[in-house]
Amino acid sequence: MFQAPRGTADILPEEQGYWRFCRSKARETATSFGYRRIDTPLFEDARLFVRGVGELTDIVEKETYTFEDRGGDLLTLRPEGTAPVCRAYLEHGMSNLPQPVRLYYVCPAFRYERPQSGRSRQHHQFGIEVLGDGDAIIDAEVIEVAWRFLGSVGLSDLELSINSIGDGECRPQYIRTLQDHYRQHSGILCHDCTRRLEHNPLRLLDCKVDSCQPVIGGAPHSVDYLCDACDAHWSSLRGHLFALGLPYAVNHRLVRGFDYYTRTVFEVTPPVEGSQTTIVGGGRYDGLIEELGGKPTPGIGFGMGIDRVILNLKRQEVAPPEYRDTKVLVAHLGEAAKAEAVKLASKLRQAGTAALVGPAERGLRSQLRYASAIDATHAVIIGDDELAKGVVVLRDLSKSAQHEVDPDRLVQELQSAGGNGC
RNA sequence: GUGAGCGUGGUCAAGUGGUUAAGACGCCAGGUUGUGGCCCUGGAGAUCGAGGGUUCGAAUCCCUUCGCUCACCCCA
Fold it and tell me: How far is the CA of A61 from the C1' of B63 (A)?
């Protein structure tokens, strides 16, 4: 038997309510801030992510789905949304549009990882990007979009963490200071941190091993090493967040996995301890567009894991709204009635009412049982008696009441009966 | 890449060496010669993940393998 590939999952009909809910809230929130939707291809030139995300990141080093197509092109299934959007911005000359350009997307992303709770090989991201404006009001806006979205779906008790990791001007010196600090304690570092010290020094800060905690505790803070411009940006951001009433916490240990981040980084996590908890991660990437061949252009955005949002909705027992529209099952008895049922169901659908024909070769009782099972609101019954009289029976399944109707008036009757609302 | 736990009908799940592998939900039928949701009765549906071994006898013990889950790494 075939199974869905490891790390992938079917989203079954019972689950779709959550997805429809999240997607529509994402669209509503993003458009209310003036963002416009963009869809980029599922796969891109493999080099885009090497350049954009960073050659030495785990994602590019060992997590991409990369393959050669039949024409010999090397392609990669998108592992994240920012680099493709920046590519599109450049390819379509969006730098000539009024700046800044605000874009959002909802799309799947792929990473070859060992799956676990909240992490799979195909996940879905709601993301936004603002290109062409480096002011801190944009940073605050992007964070606000994430925060408002999460509120709109009903998640509460979330924690918003922010930090600034400086830019090309000031970060190198900070990293040197950080490494110096760590080298003084190299004796007690865990295995991973010994590696990180040379390979990915910023990552030293979010090591979870107990023995490394004292070293982290004494580590210098990146915000204390910001150059004047970055420092001004940083305090401006905090001022705007405060003014907007967003309850942020400065986390000096917050760093992010992509090479392209500059200045602001942020994430939102739920209050549960554990591992794969980050719901939203984002930050500023003022060097990325240039890295991809454009002129220097500031940018900032976030990626949000919809799968993780839904995980938390379930954890907090937030149910998506239910939609219950009129749905008619046309039950039939006998060959002549069966043919009539097919025609009648078709007519109902064309008039805009969901309708389906009862399962053939079954008794009326079975057909009505089926009607209940699929949440039909009404049943139409056609048998020899009705055919002879030129009527059909319309049964309201929620009220258990029925009456005969002229088939030509059926659409009208159903409309006046209406659905049960939401 | 590393570590741990778990694989029994569609789903959940009992069974821990001894005749035809419980039960529940779901599915189908009947109870109502044409009337659902509740209830009652009956039925279908499992080579106990796969392969090998131990044994008179294996779902049960051992080995291998595949899969799933969780955690680490890392990330949404």
Answer: 37
Question: Which CATH superfamily is A13-170+226-315 part of?
Answer: Bira Bifunctional Protein; Domain 2 (3.30.930.10)
Q: Is the CB of A258 under 7 A from strand B?
A: yes
- Which CATH number is correct for A327-416, 2.40.160.40, 3.40.50.620, 3.40.50.720, 3.40.50.800? 3.40.50.800
Range 218-247, chain A: CB under 7 Å to any strand B atom: none
d(CA A372, CA A396): 11
Q: A166-223: per-residue pLDDT in tens?
A: 998 899 999 999 999 998 888 888 877 887 787 778 888 877 777 788 888 889 999 9
Name the burial class of residue A108, with classes exposed (0-12), middle (13-18) and buried (19+) by CB atoms within 10 angstroms of its CB: middle
Q: How large is the ipTM? A: 0.90
Q: Please give residues of chain A from 19 to 48 whose alpha-adjacent beta carbon (CB) lies under 7 Å from any atom of strand B.
A: none
Domain with CATH 3.30.930.10 in chain A: 13-170+226-315
Q: Which nucleotide is nearest to A278 (CA to C1')?
A: B76
> With DSSP H G I counted as helix, E B as strand and the rest as coil, what are the percentages for chain A, rounded to 5?
45, 20, 35
Closest nucleotide C1' to the C-alpha of A303: B76
Alpha carbon distance A37, A16 (integer Å): 21
Nucleotide nearest to A369 (CA to C1'): B36
